[in-house]
Amino acid sequence: MVLKRALIFLGPPGAGKGTQAKHIARSCGIPHLSTGDMFRDAVSRGTELGKSVQPIMERGELVPDDLVMKLVEERLSRADCARGFVFDGFPRTLAQASELDHILESRGFGKPLVIDFAVSEPVLLRRLSGRWTCSVGGEIYNIYDAPPRQAGICDLDGGKLVQRADDRPEVVKERLMAYERQTKPLTDYYRRQGVLEMVDGSATVEEVQRALQGILNGARRS
Ligand code: AP5
Ligand code: MG
Fold it and tell me: How far is CA 41 from CA 100, 149, 174, in A?
């Protein structure tokens, strides 16, 4: 494929952004850029960045824009981003979106293609309570809808499956509030730019995959 274009997966916690971004990245041969995964990696390695963001993430709040933008700029400067990439969980504030517009322009990318995953709150809560993630390769499972073949073990690399610290119900409540207050306004921002597409994120993983493929095919033709 590739669209030399930035893909942005927008949507609330648990909407399926990571699940679908991994699939698109594999099938299109482009990097999957999840700021959440990058921060979790920094936390698990105990870096200075990790130490500063850990308490923020554990409260379910957003990391300050300057730390996010520094991380993103550094990641985009690597060679594998030259042909396109898929952002998952970034941008998350209007300030991040506006800075990203400038960065994309300066790197020769046009407007991004933004896909908003719509999922109702009861479905999000069920998904987050059932999520287990591989501690080695990051593959995402769900005990209700997408269980591993063997409980607690990743099908792909045999890694141990773990639950995220911010998937506790009280933190999920904060994350959903942060989404409503700070991230949801991005849908209007991108709609006004004419680059927003919606998908029904409550459909099955395969149905959402097909819907995304249809949107990408349409974007390639246009
Ligand atoms: P981040 O890691 O980005 O988390 P999030 O946006 O809250 O989203 P999630 O990862 O929880 O959900 P997802 O949409 O990826 O769903 P998934 O595919 O896993 O951010 C974490 C924290 O980092 C933030 O709170 C903040 O502190 C910080 N941060 C990160 N980026 C930042 C930024 N840009 N600015 C500031 N702070 C930032 O799926 C969920 C579950 O559902 C899984 O179990 C999966 O198997 C299942 N599932 C997926 N799709 C389906 C389906 N179609 N049907 C049934 N089950 C499904
Ligand atoms: Mg995710």
Answer: 22, 26, 22
- Angle of CA points 85, 88, 90, to nearest 5°: 95
- The DSSP 8-state label assigned to residue 130 in this structure reads T
Find the ligand nearest to 92 CA: 1
User: pLDDT by residue (tens digit) across 42-67?
Assistant: 999 999 999 999 999 999 999 999 99
Point out the ligand 1 atom lying closest to the alpha carbon of residue 89.
3
pTM comes to 0.96
- What DSSP element (H or E) covers 3? none
Distance 219 CA to ligand 1 centre (A): 25
Q: Which numbered atom of ligand 1 lies nearest the CA of 88?
A: 3
Cα of 24 vs centre of ligand 2, distance in Å, is 14
- pLDDT value of residue 221: 81
Ligand 1 near 130 CB (within 6 A): yes
pLDDT at 5: 87
Inform me whether the pLDDT recorded for 2 exceeds 60: no
CATH superfamily of 6-30+83-221: P-loop containing nucleotide triphosphate hydrolases (3.40.50.300)
